[in-house]
Write a structure and sequence with these properties.
about 475 residues; alpha/beta; Rossmann fold; 2 domains; seven-stranded parallel sheet; disordered N terminus; disordered C terminus
Amino acid sequence: MGTRYEPSSGNAPRILVVAPVFAPASPIGTMRTLRLVRRMDADGWRATVLTAAPATYVPSMPQDPALLERVPAAVEIVHAPVLRPIERLNKMLRPQRSRPGPSPSAAEPGAATPQSWYRELYKIIDELTSIPDREIGWVVPAIVSGMSIVRKQRPVAIYSSAPPWSAQIAAYAIARLSGLPWVADFRDPWARAPWRENQPERQRRAAVRLERHVVRRADAILFATPTNRREYASQYGAQVAEKFFVVPNGCDPDEFAGRSRPADSETFTLLHAGSLYGARSPVPLFEAIASIISKGIVRRDQFRLRLIGTSTLDRDLEQSVSRHNLHDVVERVSRMPRREIVDAMASASALLVLQPETTVSIPGKLYEYLALGKPVLALCEEGDTAELVRASGAGIAVISPDVRAVEAGLVELLRVRERPLVPAHRDLYDGTRFAGEALAVIAAVAGKRSAVADDGRRATPEAVAAGKASE
């Protein structure tokens, strides 16, 4: 059980949870915060969740209203709108862009056209309104709403979850204005994330400065992986790292209990649930699938690859599917309600993880895969994801991006069905227990007790309550 914090008044203590992504938004980041507020409720705490107004979500935000059914009745949800000035400006100027102007030949050489001025203006404003991310328009409304909550409800601490990193900026301001203790949750790396390398220099510099302010002001920082914590400890030094804790993501085991079903014995279905973007691409896998089909290792009518989730790689995927003649093998579904996604995962033969080019984060879906007791194929780097897959005893980690290595992993995966699979130990994926560890850190901060993390060790509720961390 999590550590209870009982104030002298006898009233249940309240935590202000700052999380722009929360139910009914349904990306994987929502689940970590949802597990925490459920654990707070079970352990005698009260939570007020300050989140984004659904009407102001970006169009690509996945939503599942059924998630609201899992929010405890005592949890209050306060919505603050996301102001999106760049989108409004774009709409205002779009008619002007569409008006016919002088042809390039009629304009003076080197003269700026209205279109070029618009593009430059749009580029500057777009860059500035993307610091620290495209949810920056939520920060001011969130600060206003957050301070109102502080005055009315008198919470004992603030907890914030990011990305989006605008959550940490809003929580930073609320903590500074209110003087409340604050726990900041870093689900991913921020300023030195590998995927930031292609961002404009101005955005990278801003990320470094903003991260530094957040790390120094927060009373405790949570990280989802040991590697991420070690990287931050190296960056900020041992003294600051005393307030760094590792709390894995996990999942809610009860959501998956009894859900796993035997796969179709005739067709081997490999399923990926989650967004595809950047380096998280299945294109090398397409080539490996085409190869094992051409070699007769598996018949094309007995193998399916299902990809469930949004994608920014549509063109690359379509070209690769066409090039390898996999139209009848690869199935893509952009959106499904969460319950249907879980059903699809539960009935698959095996589950796919795509985590290339980074060692500092573990996809949240991996914990759900382990809870379902299905074989896992992970195309990843050597690091936390590969270690978890191996520790589970239920998966195959393919480290090399070479197609031959991916093909070998596929062949090994196909053989898994020939032997009984031992389910992963619950301690590897029990997010409810991990939420108790997060709550223990919040309790320590709220109670002004010492919470020291030493050499990346996990902070158990009992150890944090005693003022130290242990394995």
